[in-house]
Amino acid sequence: MNSFYILFLFLFFFFSSQTASIKETTFERDFILPRPPVYNGIQTKSKNTIYSSFVYHEHLQEHGQFLKPREVCQYDDRINYRVVRADGINFSHVYMEDTYKMDSELEFYYIKPTNQNNSVAMKIVGQSNLEEEATISVYSYLSISTEDKSAICSINFEDKQPFISSYSSDYNGIINLKTHFQSKEPLVTSYYAVRNDEPYLATDIITSQFNHYGGGIFQLPNKTDYSKGVPNFAIIHKVFQTPFEWIVYFDSEDDPIPSSFVFDEQFIQQQLAFDSKFDSIFGSQIINATHNQFGKQVLSHLLGGLSYFYGTRYIYDPYENKTFEFYDNELYSCIPNKFYFPRPFFWDEGFHDKIVWRWEPKLFENIMTSWFNLQNETTGWIAREMIIGSEAQSRAPEWAWAGITNQMNPPIFFFTLFEYYQQDPQSRITFLKSIYPKLQKTYDFYWNNCLSTVTPYTFVWLGRVGDGTLDSGLDDYPRAPEPTKQEVDIDIQSWMVKLSYVMQYFAQEVGDTKNQSLYHLEYTETLKKMREIFWNSKQHVYQDTRYQNGTLDEKIEHVGIISVFPVCLGIEPIDNGNNQRVKEMIQVMNNTSILFDEQAGLRSLSSKDSAFMLSGNYWRGNIWINMNYMCSQGLKFYEQYYPEAKTLRNRIEETVINNVIKEYFKTHGSLWETYMPFTGLGYNNNPFNGWTTLVLLMMAQLY
Ligand SMILES: *[C@@H]1O[C@H](CO)[C@@H](O)[C@H](O)[C@H]1NC(C)=O
Ligand SMILES: *[C@@H]1O[C@H](CO)[C@@H](O)[C@H](O)[C@H]1NC(C)=O
Ligand SMILES: *[C@@H]1O[C@H](CO)[C@@H](O)[C@H](O)[C@H]1NC(C)=O
Ligand SMILES: *[C@@H]1O[C@H](CO)[C@@H](O)[C@H](O)[C@H]1NC(C)=O
Ligand SMILES: *[C@@H]1O[C@H](CO)[C@@H](O)[C@H](O)[C@H]1NC(C)=O
Ligand SMILES: *[C@@H]1O[C@H](CO)[C@@H](O)[C@H](O)[C@H]1NC(C)=O
Ligand SMILES: *[C@@H]1O[C@H](CO)[C@@H](O)[C@H](O)[C@H]1NC(C)=O
Ligand SMILES: *[C@@H]1O[C@H](CO)[C@@H](O)[C@H](O)[C@H]1NC(C)=O
Ligand SMILES: *[C@@H]1O[C@H](CO)[C@@H](O)[C@H](O)[C@H]1NC(C)=O
Ligand SMILES: *[C@@H]1O[C@H](CO)[C@@H](O)[C@H](O)[C@H]1NC(C)=O
Predict the structure, then answer these.
(1) CATH 1.10.10.10 is the classification of domain 3-255+265-280
(2) How far is the CA of 140 from the centre of ligand 1 (A)?
(3) pTM of whole model > 0.85?
(4) What are the extents of the domains in the chain?
C-alpha cells in the first residue's frame, strides 16, 4: 500500500463526513428533479438515485425500421425543445416538436401530488401534424442506481396490465410505476426488466432489443432477465396511434397516490400558483402581456435545469501533474444548457442564483451550501466546472472531467449572497454565519493564487494557456500577446476590489472585527492600485497593464467589457457626481462605434478593436446577457448622482430585451448563449437556459 492510497482513504472519509453535513441542510422533502442531459425525466435527490423517464421513437411499420430513441438531448435530433413551465420542485411541463421525420408534437407533464412526499404523476400527450395518424413507440421506465445494493426492479401484473414494481432502500419498501390512464388501447404493450449499469439511460437497452418482433411490430421480450444480475431497470413499452395520452403514477406502497387525485386539475392548480407567485415577485414591472408570458417561460427554462449530481469527481493538480479521484460528492445546481453543457459551472451559477434567490430563498441557500461543501478545506479552491458522477461524465469529453486546482472563476456567488443578504439581514444572518468561514477560505484562495508579483495589491489570471484564459470566465477575451507574470489584469483586479469590500461587510455583520479591518485595508489598497495603475487616460477606460523596464504603464490596448468593469461593479467612487472617470466610461459604453450595439446591447469587445470577431469569436464582440445585466446593475448604482447613467441603463435594457424577445419568437422559443453584434442574431449554443435568463431581471427592473 502506498501513500497515495492512504491519502485517498483519508479523503474518502473526509468527503463522507461532508456528505452528512449536506443532508442536514437540504429540503425536508426528498423532492423530484429534472435530469440534466435528457429531454424528459426525473430523479430523486439521493445517492441511491431512482430514475424515471418517458422515451419515444417513431414507428415506421411498413419499413420495419426504428429511429433513434429520443432520450439524451442532441442537436442532430432536430427537435424544438422548450420548458413551458417548471418551478424546480413541484411540477414541470415540456414541449417537444419533432420535425425530423415524423412531424409530431409531444408534451410531457410531471407533477408531485400535494401532501405527498415522494410520489410523482407523469403524463405524455402525443399528436401528429401530418394528415394521417402517426404510430409512435413510447416507453416509461423506472431504474435505480447501482449504489443501491438491495435494489430490485421487476414486472408485475394487475388486471393483465404489466406494471413496474421495485424495491428501493430509500423508500424502505416497494415502489411502483403503474399505468393510471391511457386515452386509447395501444397497438402493442410489451415489457422488459434487466440489469443496467447505466440506469440513467434506456437507449442502449431499447436498441439492443430492436430485433424482437411479434405480429409484425417491434416488441420488448416480455421477460425479467437475470442473465446480467439482479435487474435494477424495468421498462414498459406501448405503441400508440396519434393522438394519444398516457398517464403513469410513481408512488410507494405505503403512501400511494390517492384515488381522489385528478391529474389535470392539480396541474392547473400548480400552474396558477406558479403564475401568481411569478407576478408577485417579478411581474409588477412587466406590464406588456407578451413580455409577461415570455418572463414566465424564461424563469421556467432556468428552473427546468435545476439538477442534482452524485458520484465521483476528479481533480488535477498541475504542480504535481497528478489526477486525484474523489468519491461521494453531491451537488445541487442549475445548468446552462442541456445539449452542450449539462453540468454546473461555478461562475454561471452565481449569476443563475440572482434569479433563484428571488424565487425561492431556501433553494438558493441549499445550492450555495452544496457548492461550498465541495470547496477544498485547505486551499479554499472550488472547481470551475463540476462533472460529477457517470451520467454527467458520459456527456463531457474525458479530458474535461478533472477540475484544475490553480484555476478558479470569478466570485459572482459572493456578490449574489451580498444582494440576497441585504434584502433581509435579520432572517438571513444565520445562513451568512454558517457559510462565512468557507467564504473566508475561498477569498484567501484568490489572494494566494492570483496575486501578481509586480507590485502589492494587484492581480493576474495565471491559468492562461495561449489565447485561453479559462479562469477569467472570458475564455478568449484578448490579453497581452503572450502570457507573462509581468501582466496585471483589470477584470480580476475589479473582482478583488468588490470582493474585499463584500468581505469586510460580511465580517462586520458576523462580528469578526479583526478580520473586518484586514478586509477593509485590502479593499482600500486594491481600489487605490486599480485607480493608479490600470487607467488609460487617452482611451478613457481601464485596461490590462504590463510591467516593462521598471514602469507599469504599458497598457494592453484592448477596449471591451472589462474596461468598464469598475462602473459595472459599482466600485469606482461616486464622489458626489464629480468623478470624471465615471462620466467618461459611460460615454464609452454609450458610443456605438465602441461598446454600444444598437441591435443587441453592450458588446464584449469594441467593434474598433484589433481582435474584434477574430478566430474563436466567443468573448470577442458577441453580446452576453450576464454582462449586460451586471453593467445595468452598476449603472443603477450611479444614477442618483449621474443622470446619464440612468439614460444609458434604460437604453441597454430596451435594446437587450427587445432583441432577446425578437430572437426568441423567431427561433421556436430559444434563448441563445450570445447575440451577434450589428445583426443581433442568436449565436452559439441554444436553447441556452443559463444566464441569458437574466433578461427576466432586466424586464422586472430588479438589481
Ligand atoms: C411546492 O409546493 C409546496 C407545497 O405545496 C409549496 O410549499 C412550495 O412553495 C412549492 N414550491 C415552489 C418552488 O413553488
Ligand atoms: C412526509 O414528510 C413529512 C415532513 O417531513 C413527514 O412528517 C411525513 O411523515 C412524511 N409522510 C410520509 C408518508 O412519509
Ligand atoms: C407481451 O405482453 C403483453 C402484455 O401482457 C402482450 O399483450 C403481448 O402480446 C406480449 N407479447 C409477446 C410477443 O408475447
Ligand atoms: C409588447 O411587446 C411586444 C414584443 O416586444 C411588442 O411587439 C408589442 O408592441 C408590445 N405591446 C405593447 C402594448 O407595448
Ligand atoms: C504528466 O504526467 C503524464 C503521465 O502521467 C506525462 O505523460 C506528462 O508528460 C507529464 N507532464 C508533465 C508536464 O510533466
Ligand atoms: C486540497 O488541497 C490540498 C493542497 O493542495 C491537497 O493536498 C488536497 O488533496 C486537496 N483536497 C481535496 C479534497 O481537494
Ligand atoms: C480571521 O480569519 C481567519 C481565516 O481567514 C481566521 O483563521 C481567524 O481566526 C480570523 N481572525 C479572527 C480574529 O477572527
Ligand atoms: C525595454 O527594454 C528593452 C531592452 O532594453 C527595449 O528593447 C525595449 O524597447 C524597452 N521597452 C520599453 C517599453 O521601453
Ligand atoms: C465615439 O467614439 C469614436 C471613436 O473613438 C469617436 O470618434 C466619437 O467622437 C465618439 N462619439 C461620441 C458621441 O462620443
Ligand atoms: C447615448 O447616445 C444616444 C444616441 O447617440 C444619445 O441619444 C444619448 O443621449 C446618449 N446617452 C448618454 C448617456 O450620453
Answers:
(1) no
(2) 26
(3) yes
(4) 3-255+265-280
